[in-house]
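Hi support team,

I'm filing this because I wasn't sure whether my run with fe (ii) ion finished correctly. The job status page said complete, but I'd like someone to confirm that the output block is well-formed before I use it downstream. Pasting the exact inputs I used:
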Amino acid sequence: MPDLKETAMPKTDTSQPDFPLLDLAAFAAADASGKAKIAAEVDRICVETGFLAVTGHGVPQQVIDAIWAKARGFFDLAPEVKHRVGPVPGAPYGYLGPGTEALAKSRGEDTPPDLKESFNGGPLSIPPGETDPDALAFCYAPTPWPDMPGFRAAWCAYYTEMEALAVRIMEVFAVALNLPQDHFTPFIDTPISALRALNYPAQDSAPKENQLRAGAHTDYGSLTILLPEPGSRGLEILTPEGDWRGVPPIDGAFVINIGDLMTLWTAGRWTSTLHRVVTPPDWATKRRMSLAFFHQPNWHAKITPLSGAATKPVTSGPYLMSKFAAANG
Ligand SMILES: O=C(O)CCC(=O)C(=O)O
Ligand SMILES: [Fe+2]
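And here is everything the job wrote out:
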């Protein structure tokens, strides 16, 4: 494992001097020792919280603008129109309306449903030869597309960018773990990632006890690439000290965090941090949107600790399916 000594790391300029940044363009341009230095800092952050902001990502602004416009347009449709693209039973894609999901239930906590709605889409193609019935019925279920010109094209363009970005981040993760840069490739070459557009509507009545915009949870997979609506607030992470801390809006950056499978892969070295979405007092009258790309290894990928510790492997697809069922049961 890398040595954990403090290294210089760029910080956000003004709003939140403490929030760590990973500049992917700087990583790509660095020589081996520069890469090792950046990777050591990523390792340190992943040990602590696994949350950081990514700049230098190269995702074209017009791809981001287009999906924001289509997501907003979709959520502004009448409820009965949105429900026309509700999920096929047992599948996670399409429109999940208010009252459908309580993320805290994925950890066995019984809370009221999250104050949100979402649109969800899965992998853009099915790997040739895939016959596993659960894989076909769950993660390779078709996405029910809304009848809105340009929605599908904008969605798929953003999904494609996120898939490529996740590969670059997983390469940094490999170096951060002192592994060859392409170590994770065989596990993530047919990923079963999902993209979710989230809308947290303005709240016109008081929430129930323990009801949040998103209940406290960890993400399930390898990596989440989150884009909160610019300037928006409400996402909080649990610090190692046990305090909830707001993630600041950071212009031009994605917020990334690792999920449960990365913790398992690193034998507990990296933290899949609890996070939630609250409603700051000045946000109750305002909607908030976000785009979350949940990067998930191949359906059949068997995740065992890199340390070689003898534990029963966790298979990526069935693990994801069981967590989704718990949160949506
Ligand atoms: O909307 C957000 O900022 C975070 C949502 C989230 O953590 C999730 O859906 O897993
Ligand atoms: Fe999350």
